[in-house]
Design a protein that fits this description.
About 40% of the residues lie in helices and about 15% in strands. A 5-stranded mixed beta sheet has the order 2-1-3-4-5, with helices on both faces. Strand 1, helix 2 and strand 2 form a beta-alpha-beta unit. The chain has about 190 residues and is an alpha/beta fold.
């Protein structure tokens, strides 16, 4: 059982004080917050590709690294990182070959039904209540467009200071190569001029 393996490992980890190299404060040393995808390939690759170490940044992850709601949990975390944890820059980092760019909402809903978790009647009732489940499950067509949309939402948010750069990058999940989509410094200088 995976849980027992994790707990046994953790007991040894703590007992051997293997946590010592990871000690850090809650304030990010590089004063940055990153919004990225939960893709398992990025767990270690993303921080290494950005030269981030424990305590350097606040990293917020979800499916596709998308911000779907201006007042949802992702934006609440970004706002908290700025005002409570001294973040001074925002990095929106998507990745190439993201599963959310190939999402199949109809297929996912069918899997929910097939697994017996829900029924067509319940799904219809949810949609009748105003929730567009296919839209809710849909990711995006192109990672660059998703990054741009996320940047627009952050940049125009009423609680984000206008002097904070919002950068957009796409990472290759195989090599870690970063492609610059939006240089937040350049955007700030264009706004000032």
């Amino acid at each position: 059982m995976l849980l027992q393996e994790i707990l046994a490992y953790n007991e040894q980890f703590v007992q051997n004080k293997e946590y010592l190299p990871f000690e850090a404060t809650k304030i990010p040393q590089k004063h940055m917050v990153v919004v990225s995808c939960m893709d398992a390939r990025l767990i270690e690759l993303l921080p290494k590709a950005l030269d981030l170490h424990n305590g350097d940044a606040k990293i917020i992850k979800n499916a596709g690294g998308t911000i779907t709601d201006a007042f949802g949990s992702i934006m609440r975390s970004v706002v908290t990182a700025i005002y409570e944890l001294n973040a001074e820059e925002i990095y929106i980092i998507g990745h190439h070959a993201c599963g959310m760019s190939q999402s199949n909402p109809k297929g996912t809903l069918q899997k929910i039904i097939d697994r017996g978790v829900s029924s067509p009647e319940i799904l219809s009732a949810i949609e009748y209540a105003g929730i567009d489940l296919e839209k809710w499950l849909f990711g995006f067509d192109h990672v660059e467009d998703s990054i741009q949309a996320n940047i627009g939402l952050v940049r125009n948010h009423p609680f984000i200071p206008k002097d904070i750069p919002v950068h957009g990058l796409a990472i290759d999940p195989h090599t870690g190569k970063l492609d610059l989509i939006v240089d937040g410094y350049q955007t700030l200088s264009n706004v000032k001029n």
